């Protein structure tokens, strides 16, 4: 129980950080130049089908009927795990820091990328991710340069994947938070209105706003079986709209991750068949409902043992995990629809 409460407190801290603005000066320490990752080296992939990694993990209740497919690939771009306000590596993290990689692997790779391990082969590159506080910079030029450097790695990894691993397979792009910052640009530059668009099953760009007019040739997903489209949502407590959302001059794309239908924007938590929380090997039913509301996804306060300690109204950290089983099933739905074309 003590460990569970500590986890909740840590989750609340990071969720709160995601919705706050930083006004204090950031402390930066000098660091050595960061080496560009070589994606022929498996160590530079957080997830790769040629090695065993946390994305291969399957929650225990799902193992009996686990039947992985290798005809489809998932290119997953992980969220920020470089959260240290002191920025010990500068604005960008290296890809060879063991502690940071372990943090990435045991968080987003295990709890998010694993969602897709039955749908296809999972590829998740390590990249020189921008520090979390680059989203709230005191030095705007440095922050923009940090995101540009991170994106160049993601781009290089995708190009390497396409040249050496894809071999004409259809694929899914999946991402969260900073990963979605890079994924939307990647799709815009490499996939939209290009031959690769014909191979795109769907994109799950979660945790960041996707402007409805950002893509001109790739629509938002409006039905569960639609392909070649984009899903996106950001999860908040029902009745709450964060200040940064209020400042947006557009209504972001929001997909209901339980109904997957634009005609069914709201559904009870009783229809949520499985979330994955602290205990990866336990599926928790009825944790969160889903209601599309003005550019965000609302849910009533999540229902699980210990949720009394959860005081936050921003559920960013759990965007995927509240709807783990639903996303897992939906990826298979879209793949099946794609392959039948």
Average predicted confidence as pLDDT: 91
Strand-and-helix sequence, N→C?
HEEHEHEHEEEHEEEEEH
Task: Tell me the span between the first and last alpha carbons.
Answer: 50 Å
Main beta-sheet annotation = 6 strands, mixed
Note down, in words, how this protein is organized.
The protein has six helices and twelve strands. It has one domain (26-340). The strands form three sheets. It has a six-stranded mixed beta sheet, sandwiched between helices. It is of the alpha/beta class and 341 residues long. Helix 2 (98-111) links the parallel strand 2 and strand 3 (121-125). Mean pLDDT is 91; it is low at 1-31. It is globular.
Q: In terms of topology, how is this protein built?
A:
Layout: H1 2-18, E1 45-47, E2 73-77, H2 98-111, E3 121-125, H3 140-166, E4 171-176, H4 178-190, E5 200-206, E6 229-231, E7 235-237, H5 243-246, E8 266-267, E9 275-276, E10 283-284, E11 290-293, E12 296-299, H6 324-340
Parallel strand pairs: 2-3, 2-4, 4-5, 5-6, 7-12
Antiparallel strand pairs: 1-3, 8-11, 9-10, 11-12
Helix pairs in contact: 3-4
In short:
By secondary structure, this protein is α/β, with parallel strands linked by helices.
Key features of this structure:
341 residues, disordered N terminus, six-stranded mixed sheet, alpha/beta, 12 strands, single chain
